[in-house]
Amino acid sequence: MKKIFKITLWVLVALLFVGTFVFLYLNSRPKEEKYAIVQPQIDSVERSTVLTGKIEPRDEIQIKPQISGIITEICVDPGDMVKEGDIIAKIKVIPEASQLSSAEGRVNTAVINLEDARLKHERNTKLYEKKVISREEYEGTKTAYDNAQAELASARDAVNIVRQGVSRYNADESNTMVRATITGLVLDVPVKVGTSVIQANTFNDGTTVATIADMNNLIFKGNVDETEVGQLAVGMPMTITIGALPEVSPSAVLEYIAPKGTDSGGANTFEIKAALTVPEGANLRAGYSANAAVILSKASNVLTVPEGVVEFSGDSTYVYVLTDSLPQQKFERRAITTGVSNGINIEVKKGIDKSVGLRGDKIQ
Predict the structure, then answer these.
(1) CATH of 62-89+178-212, one of 2.40.50.100, 3.90.70.10, 3.10.129.10, 3.90.245.10
(2) What is the residue-level pLDDT of the chain in tens, covering all 364 positions?
């Protein structure tokens, strides 16, 4: 029994030794690596970028009063359509004491001058009827009397303008009536009844009574990063996407690129503007947030490969071409010339053709 036990023990030790040797040998051998094979395709590649911005009217006109005073009536609300010449608001004039005093003093002077001219004219009329004075002298006093009457009327009208801002000769065109200067949509009315307003002058821009814009002439206004601005050009087509109206996608044409960039949170950006073609029936509003897709470059019907199979080394690009698959895969590193890339596929201008197989991802 002892002999059989020893033999069995030695056999087990031998098997353990051989098994360990075989295991180590098999694990020391290099594993065969296998890769997916990718075929080049004929396709189109385009590189685009998305710009963020807003929909804005090309021109927003701020309506300002031509006289200082207090708003007594507002005739429009934001969202109303107005025509050129429509009344936006009415103003009550608060006269300045110095101007009113000067105007009233002019009236008093005119009254005195009129009374003097009347007396002279009445006296000369009697003398002329008696043939004592010449017709020329008579007509001179009559003209002076007429001028004095006109001066009094003008002085009284000046007082009325200072007090009320209205002339009796052109009440319809009074400066107290704030009128629309263009036909368009009222975007904002920042004043209320009772608000004091001032006219524009050398030292002040004046109070804005309303903002009006032509909503049929809209633009997309956004910003582009300095890394992409060099690839933009005036006249490029754009597709606009509006977050509030996903079903509306107006087209646009780039018409302005700022010649100077601005620092925006550490990034240098350039302002761009594009003219919108508004689809019929689309109800666009000023201030809508929007994105603009711009095609920077495009190549149609060209040889393309996934960008993941391309090796970039400095200014050179390479792919690994399959040369043999048995007993194991073999690849040859080959230089290629690339073109347009969209981040997924890239154009290959030369170096390979459609028939080759390229090394793709490793198969686990």
Answers:
(1) 2.40.50.100
(2) 566 766 776 667 677 766 676 666 555 555 567 888 899 999 999 888 889 999 999 988 999 988 888 899 999 999 899 999 999 998 887 666 666 677 678 878 888 888 888 888 888 888 888 887 888 888 888 898 889 888 888 877 777 766 665 666 555 545 678 899 999 999 999 999 989 888 877 788 889 999 999 888 899 999 998 888 888 999 999 999 998 888 888 999 999 999 999 887 778 899 999 999 888 877 888 889 999 999 888 899 999 999 999 999 888 999 999 888 877 888 899 999 999 988 899 999 999 998 899 988 888 6
Question: pTM here?
Answer: 0.61
**Residue 158 · residue 146 · CB < 8 Å:** no
Distance separating alpha carbons of residues 127 and 154, to the nearest angstrom: 30
- Please tell me the CATH superfamily of domain 97-164, with its number: Helix hairpin bin (1.10.287.470)
CATH, domain range 50-57+215-296 = 2.40.30.170
Q: Given its phi and psi angles, is residue 335 left (phi above 0), alpha (psi -120 to 50 degrees) or beta?
A: beta
DSSP sequence for 278-291 = PPTT----TT-EEE
Q: Do residues 292 and 274 touch, judged by C-beta distance below 8 A?
A: yes
Residue whose token pair is 């350039």: 270
Which tokens is 33 given? 């690596």
Per CATH, which fold does 34-46+299-363 belong to?
2.40.420
The pairing of strands 267-277 and 289-306 is unpaired
